[in-house]
Amino acid sequence: MADGSAAVRPADVRDAALRLLARREHSHAELTRKLVQKGWPADLVDIEVDALAAAGLQSDQRYAESFARSRAGKAYGPVRIRAELGERGIDRSLIEHALRELETDWFTLAADWYERRYGPDPVTDFKEKSRRQQALARRGFDHAVIRELV
């Protein structure tokens, strides 16, 4: 953590960033935000995080792929994964690349989650059908998948 009593050294900022990266991947924006929140000077944080990215120690592409894999493993759909990565400062092209790399059958993923959650019985009640469609939409599946499932 930054200490106001002494001059902050770039190496200290770098060490703090590396400690965060040792736990898990972080996006550039997320790592910058965390370090600034901990009290490190924003100008030094920008320089050091850029240097870590240039050295390959921080990678938005690696982060996006890891995040997308994790969320798909928890049965979240591409719409939600796209939105969450966008909120974390990941570039749209990197998001699309990460989703392509997954090679996931989104319909099968949604169908498996749907059956675990609701069972095999078809829904007849309009209100219940609407509730199930909303649940699938919140998980990030597109309308075509939702229509086919419910």
Walkthrough of the structure:
The protein is an all-alpha fold and 150 residues long. It has 3 domains: 10-54, Orthogonal Bundle (Arc Repressor Mutant, subunit A), CATH 1.10.10; 60-102, Arc Repressor Mutant, subunit A (Orthogonal Bundle); 106-149, Winged helix-like DNA-binding domain superfamily/Winged helix DNA-binding domain (Arc Repressor Mutant, subunit A, Orthogonal Bundle). It has 9 helices and no strands. It has helices at residues 10-23, 28-37, 42-54, 60-73, 78-87, 92-102, 106-118, 126-138, 143-149. Helix 2 packs antiparallel against helix 3 (42-54) and helix 4 (60-73) runs antiparallel to helix 5. The mean pLDDT is 94.
Task: Map the helices and strands.
Blueprint: H1 10-23, H2 28-37, H3 42-54, H4 60-73, H5 78-87, H6 92-102, H7 106-118, H8 126-138, H9 143-149
Helix pairs in contact: 1-3, 2-3, 4-5, 4-6, 5-6
**Total number of β-strand segments?**
0
Q: Specify the helix fraction band.
A: over 70%
| Beta-strand residue percentage | under 5%
What sequence of helices (H) and strands (E) makes up the elements? HHHHHHHHH
CATH architecture of the largest domain: Orthogonal Bundle
Shape: elongated
Q: What is the total number of structural domains?
A: 3
Number of helices: 9
| Low-pLDDT residue intervals, each spanning 5 or more residues | none
User: What is the typical, i.e. mean, pLDDT?
Assistant: 94
Could you say which structural class the secondary elements and strand pairing correspond to? mainly alpha
Rg, Å, rounded? 20 Å
Identify the CATH class of the largest domain.
Answer: Mainly Alpha
Report, as a whole number of angstroms, the end-to-end distance: 51 Å
Predict the CATH topology of the largest domain: Arc Repressor Mutant, subunit A
- What does the main sheet amount to? none
